[in-house]
Amino acid sequence: MGSRGRVTLQTIAREVGLSKYAVSRSLSGKSGVSEATRALIRETAQRLGYIKPAGQSTGNEIAVVFHDVDPVNSELYMQIQNGVQGEAHRLGMGLRVRWTHSARQLEELARSCAGLLLVGPHDREAIAAANATGIPVVRFGWVDPLEQADQVSGTDHEAGQAVLQYLIGLGHRSIAYVHGVPGLRGRRERFYGAREIAERYEDVALHVMQFDEQNGFGDAYRALKEKGVRPTAFFCAHDGLALTVVSELLGQGYRIPDDVSVIGFGDFSPAQQISPPLTTVRMEGQECGAVGLRLLLERIENPRLPGMPARRINVASRIIERRSAGPCKVPAST
After folding, report:
1. Contact predicate 240/274, CB 8 Å
2. Helix 239-251 × helix 217-226 angle, to 10°
3. Which of 40, 169, 177, 312 has the greatest count of CB atoms below 10 A from its CB?
4. What gap in Å lies between CA 183 and CA 161, rounded to an integer?
């Protein structure tokens, strides 16, 4: 009996080759587990002599919490949600999905869950409230330098580097980085990466365009041309900005990509709905979601020891070539 008393959910999970959460849901009678799997788990638990600890629930769930005031990244958030839900379904585990920016609601949710996935720009108060509960937390979004927080993210800086290398390879030497509204960290990181590459070439100029995203591109472009600058390529920090740039340039009589190339960022659904279809950078949101859930489960099943460092996991983006970018065919003016 002594050895049997040490049989845990994790013991059963290893025996049947499933996650601890599939075992938990099966033994607690919850949905999300097939009858065949449920029977296998029940038989294995009986064979190993598993005894459910008195007063302990076996139905702990994971929660993924999206910041509910961030319309720019709504499609990316849905990709992340799909990734988390798909991985949770594969593992046969319970999952709660919430949208909030309230520290109080986040704390209440954390106290009823085994772990949290935080997506978006949750403020310090909300993050501190979640961390104070002592449960594992994995974040999708920016963290402070050397902050001891597990994070899953894309590769903004690398993406900026890759796009500049791509455009330079096409012969472009006068390139505009379309910021739109400044201050958003992801857009800054893409710019820093692009600038890093541009500075390696004496004949490459990278110009920054910042303006009101609703109707400011035309004025900003005129101001640039008045300085004698006529970019042959535009690298836009977001697909939404790229759609604005394409529309404005076509309206001014430019041919894309014969006269000028345009590249976006995100690979969201409108990127293929315009003409010409948009060359852009795909953010692998679904894979980020799946990776984040696996990291969280690892933290839950192997509690952090004192001094164990936090992890940063980057999921590499990639350039998706369509028809809005092509070889430079006109002399560059810097």
Report:
1. no
2. 70
3. 177
4. 19
Tokens representing residue 37 in the block = 């799997």
Report yes or no: 117 and 300 within 8 Å, Cβ to Cβ: no
pLDDT given at position 333: 52
Neighbours of 75 (CB within 10 A): 18
Q: Are 230 and 198 in contact (CB under 8 A)?
A: no
pLDDT score of 8: 80
Q: For residue 239, what are its two tokens?
A: 């697909």
Q: How far apart are CA 167 and CA 206, in angstroms?
A: 11
Mean pLDDT by 10 residues, the chain (334 residues): 59 83 72 76 82 51 90 88 93 88 91 92 93 92 93 97 98 94 86 98 95 85 93 96 95 96 96 95 97 92 71 97 94 54
Residue 224, token pair as written in the block:
């640039």
Report H helices in 49-184: 74-91, 103-110, 124-132, 156-169
Distance in angstroms (rounded) separating the CA atoms of residues 190 and 37: 46
Residues making up the chain, counted from first to last: 334
